[in-house]
Amino acid sequence: MVRQSFGTRWDLDPARRDAVATLIEAVATADRMIAEIEAVKAGLLAAAQGIAVEVMAELDAPSTYQLPVRAIAADIAAATNVADGTIRARMDDAVRLIEKFPATYAALCEGRLSRAHASVIAAEGARLEDEETRSRYERVVLKRAMETTAGRLRPIAQAVAERLEPTTFAERHATAREARRTWVDDLGDGMSAFHAVVETVVAHAAQDRLTQMAMSVRDSARREGRAVFGAMIDELDPTDPLPTDERTMAQVRADVFADLVLTGHPTVLTANADGDTAAAIRARVQITIPAETLAGLGDEPAFLAGHGPVDPDTARRLAGGVHTWTRLFVDPGTGCLRTVDAYTPTADQKRFLAARDEHCRFPGCRQPVHRCDLDHTVAHSEGGQTAVCNLAALCRTHHVLKHNSPWGVEHGPDGTMTWISPTGRRITDTPAPTVRFVAALEAADLDPPPSDPDDPAPF
Fold it and tell me: So what's the pLDDT on residue 256?
């Protein structure tokens, strides 16, 4: 059964709908042309590097500093007003794409995917040295690239490459971890950027905690503003503005970060904050851990939802600090999530949807699930059931858009959502958690198994 819902607040009249549809097709055509030109550019850069390599091979002594490459790159840089270091990097990227990922390059030449998608595929698969393994990786990830954004593609590519990588993630992580550091870039006008290289799960947990603290600060400011207004309502001029914290969320988050680093407390530089509330906030991340890794019987990496692998030791350490566990049951044929089981039965539906969706289900959106609303595809007031086949994660922006615009959505029993744009275009969003195995991904791509649309969720 497919559940369907359309926003009803307003709609495009036929003339405007046709005009917008024509514009959208023109934009898509322009993007295809840009991709084709990017492919031509990559071919030219690769050819330039090829000439430089030929010159190096003819030198009497080996060129330790690759002077022919640097000289030609500098010439291209001068002609295009781009830094020569950037040109050298682009030349390397072009050679890697053309020589190691020919199917991806062919798709770029045909305008079937963007340069950003091609860059993700080449960058994440670069570590796979075996040609056959790299071909398996490219076949799986290229199929996904045709269905999603470059941002969503990266964690999928990372997961597939990780499954195929002969060196264990734990070994590579141990080496990469040695590079953790902090540094400052001065931006001018009295501003600087503070950078930190830390473990992925730490970085995303820190960003989440900063976001929650910033939200707490802004909520506290609103409460204080209302209290002041209420106490002084008889004395205020009706034309006076209400006392508010006018900083953006990003600005408050940056201020909280500075407070924490400099003082260990989130409120010294953050006016109107409830210190106890902000300090008590804990970071939230969603990690999927293989059972064997959790039990210490294997070293398969865990996966941070929407971002990529996490080393086994960090995953086990994090698992030891949680009070509720969720078990995921995966279809062995397709790798698709079938059900979940948890020690808190009343939360089963939320846990299932968090594991299935991982992020907002609007096409291209990557807002993590813990910052999303659970939306009824068919509104509860219109008879929609509170069931996983009628629920999906939507960030607040796209939740509002769904209910207040001509956008519509069809919700399939397997969690697939087909969005219908105001001009009638259909965009399919398929839940594809990164816990899926490569073999299952390949099987699904080459020979999709039949599914039983009447098979109910276990709630």
Answer: 86
